[in-house]
Amino acid sequence: MGKGISIGVTLSILLFLLYLGFSPLPLLVLAVIVGMAWYFFQSRSGAQIGVGQNKRLQRKSSVPDVSFEEIGGHARSKKELKEALDFLIHRDRIQQYGIRPIKGILLSGPPGTGKTLMAKAAAHYTDSVFAATSGSEFVEMYVGVGAQRIRELFRDARTQARKNQKNSAIIFIDEIDVIGGKREGSQHREYDQTLNQLLTEMDGITSDQEVQVLVVAATNRKDMLDSALLRPGRFDRHISVDLPDKQARVSILKMHTRNKPLAEDADIERIALETFGFSGAQLESLTNEAAIYALRDNSRLIGHEHLSRAIDKVMMGEKTDRETTREERERVAIHELGHAVVSEWVRSGSVSQVSLSPRGQALGYVRHHPGQDRYLYTRKQLEDQVMICLAGAAAEQMIYKNRSTGAQNDYEQATRYIRTLMEAGLSDLGIIDKDLVGKEMLHAESAKILKDLYERTEHLLQQYSHVFQEALDVLLREEVLSGDQFRQLLKYTASSSDAVRIGG
Ligand code: ATP
């Protein structure tokens, strides 16, 4: 009815304008623009309020089938989490003791370490329905919509639990820092409302409710979170989910190769050794990439070489077709050989590969591993790392008597190590407060260390100068030198010359 009247009125106005001699075209264009904007607004807010949310919850709110056994490593985090979850399982007992229920668990750690997996396993372990959302889904919300979404999230989780005849529900909020960041001044007003609503809902959780709700949140930036979120009675259980150590990497790799045809020569222990610093997600991606390489090679089985290539792919990105001149290739080879020589000198057996194929931003690279996972460094160990970084530039200087722009990243990395060295009180400055000693003093000390280490690197490379010509020819021909091939060359050239080992 209303529609009919408005169409009638619009037509009459248009006819009247025509009669007066005005063109109705601009009005029509304006009407179309307004109509489109209105339609866009309606469809977005419709999706955000209710409709999209319910769909999402319906999709995700059954009990997940991921168990703790399917998460590699993280033994301590899993144990801590299970202990906290036991409170949810034995509700009657905790009520007896008058213990308040755990309302929130915060999982913190680098991206891809398995926080979402842990939350799903928590729901599986406690036989709870699982409702997942992410802080970033609250970005660009209209005022009040975020808070409404939080209310719906809790309400729908409870409804789903009842429907599935479960007496608990786990709400998982990934990237909690997006809505739970520290509140300063009048910024983030909309996020404030969302966060306040979350806190209100959490405060409303009691142990005598028919459906017990537990909120599990994940973040990579725990330091950014508002203290209101972390106070007792809210997210007061903090569990860190760190990068996997070597043993954990072995078990994650085994888990993700279980359904893949591995060849006899595939050495998972070795791959784990060479993937220090990889997250669970990167390890999963590595196994997948290795399988793709095997498929492309028409190989029935996934060999060690496929896994090794996959490390490069995950670490450095896909090979690029960057065209380089012969001169550039030679210089890159010399540069990389410099890194490799010093890396072997620092830790014999540490070089896994020297490669001349451009990947990501790099024109060549050396893959070396620390031998064993390391979390503490002495001054000597940090200095060794700096020397490995400087060795590319020093090798160029030795052969060409000049250096190129290719060492820029190496210098950045070297200065990072030196900063750590100074801030940890390991430099000649002694133990310092970096804010009090002043930038100039830090700069002067850093420059002194850099100069000293650069000279030592140059001196060291001179002792091995005979290796370069030999290795350069092979590298230019083969494009890739495996760690073993490189060590063979080192050994061969050392025995056929008077090279001396000056440390290590
Ligand atoms: P983000 O912080 O980026 O959200 P996350 O820490 O939540 O990441 P997940 O989404 O849980 O990481 O992990 C991504 C994928 O990585 C998983 O689906 C799984 O395949 C793999 N993965 C990560 N950690 C592990 C692990 N410990 N064991 C087995 N697989 C893992």
UniProtKB/TrEMBL annotation:
Residues 101-245 form the AAA+ ATPase domain. Its cofactor is Zn(2+). It comes from the Bacteria. Keywords: ATP-binding, Hydrolase, Membrane, Metal-binding, Metalloprotease, Nucleotide-binding, Protease, Transmembrane, Transmembrane helix, Zinc. SUPFAM superfamilies: FtsH protease domain-like (SSF140990), P-loop containing nucleoside triphosphate hydrolases (SSF52540). Pfam families: AAA (PF00004), AAA_lid_3 (PF17862), Peptidase_M41 (PF01434). SMART domains: AAA. Belongs to the AAA ATPase family. This is Vesicle-fusing ATPase.
